[in-house]
Amino acid sequence: MLILVLLMATLQSHAQFRNGLEEKYQDYRERLRNEFMVGIGPDFGHSLPATVRDTVSGRLLWTDCTIELGQYIGMLGLEYQILEQQGEDTGETVEELFWAMYALNRLDYYAEDFFGGTPSLNGFFIRDDVAEDSLDMNAVLEHLNQGLPQPAVTFLASDLMSPNPRDKEESLDQAILLVTGLGIVTRTVPPGVRYYIGGEPQPFQDFTTSLQAEAQHQIVRIINYMKEGDSTTVELDPADPNLYGIQGMGWDFIIKNPVTYENVMRGDNAFFLSMGYAGSKYHLTGQDAPTTDTIRRDLALTLFLAMENFVLPNNQDFKVINLDAMSNIWPEGIQPDTTFTDYNARILGPRSQGQDFGWIPMLHQLVFDGNNYLMSFLPPDTVFYNDPEGYYEYLLELAPEEGPYNYNDSLYPNWEWSSTSRTIHPERRGETQTAFPGNYNGIDYMLYYNLYRVLFSDPVSTGDPERPSFRVWPNPAQDFVQATLPESKGPTQVEFINMQGQRVMQTHLAGGGTHKIVIPDLPKGMYILRILTENGHTINTQKIIKN
Questions:
Q1: What are residue 540's DSSP bridge partners?
Q2: Domains and CATH numbers, the chain
Q3: Residue 300 predicted with pLDDT over 90
Q4: Nearest-5° angle of CA 380, CA 384, CA 385?
């Protein structure tokens, strides 16, 4: 245990501590590229984010990599919109997004080859193509460990390298998160955006150059393969990748391996979620999902509509609400005019809050506009009641500057960010014997942050070191803190919230200027200091340490 504590202290000293959420985001971005990716580009293993960096065993692990890839693609799409709105250079983001989407096509095209079949860009994909024997491991390890303290990463592990070859097959979960990330791109990246080298737009494997168009093509391929890829045999010309890869009218949604013709080993039966996939395809690409099997289609619709009033157990409900956030099916089915946008938002808000999937309402907002009801069904005296913006900022403030990690036995910097992914696996927070000990890639924070910025925050230049309208000092504090607000501010509220999300102190300030807030009775520890208007709108938050 002492070794692990010293290791964490060393890693913390390596991190570049900056003030503010944007600075933390930039630290996370740098960390992701340098410590969790073997490189960015077209080669096998590249542009695929690893999940866990275990500096005790020396392992860098890719597990469920296409889930991470989907979130990474969505994060980059949102980053593009933020930079574009701020008038900043988007070139590096476009390049990174192009190669991430190129990597997805790579996992799709060569999937059959890994099982002894003919390569085909048809919507069936493997989870990763990270293998030590296909990489220059000396260069990879030098890149991954450059400038970092010992112990270093010494080997790679992935689903591709698993002893069981079926561990590399796709699943319905992987498909959901890929469609989610690609769907974000369709909403945030304009049709004319392309990646150029030497003045020439670079094509994807299907010869498309527009990033938005390719995102739509990838959504169609993935969903169409699940829908009917195994319902008919299609001979594809490997020299001319088929844009959609299937030709059939079935309504199956039983995912099979196109080489072995067996159901994939994990997550094969997507039928009960099929209307969610079909609705997502329709709203994100404009393409319907026609079928001659109307009986199965009607059954699928009945099943998905029933999910409105039935929460799936064991954390499985995430799949339902994620798909409804993009398909907007409740209460009647696929709705071309999205008449019931607010209806779905009111369902997704409290349902997501109850299961700690707070980003799902933001996904629905991004796809359909409308309102966010994350905190609207709590008792009125609850912290952040009817204030999703304040809750998101509070959550983002808690993310550790050095990046999230969990090394078992409660060795983590913050409970909220102690999971491999706060977005996908909130149930793993605080595990004392986690199956994935190590440092995590932080894509969950970056996805939360970018959604928050796009939906709730006015464009602010990333060069601004701080927001001049709000200042609190000293920090750490003992008996008091001083808060400075602009003179234009009227009466405000001040709250101190502990790390369990409980309001432990509340006071009022008369208006702008500098105010002394006495805190001798607060126990020692870390708090979020929150400044609000009198009507409850969050002005700002800041992490405060009480000594």
A1: 531
A2: 471-546 (2.60.40.3080)
A3: yes
A4: 25
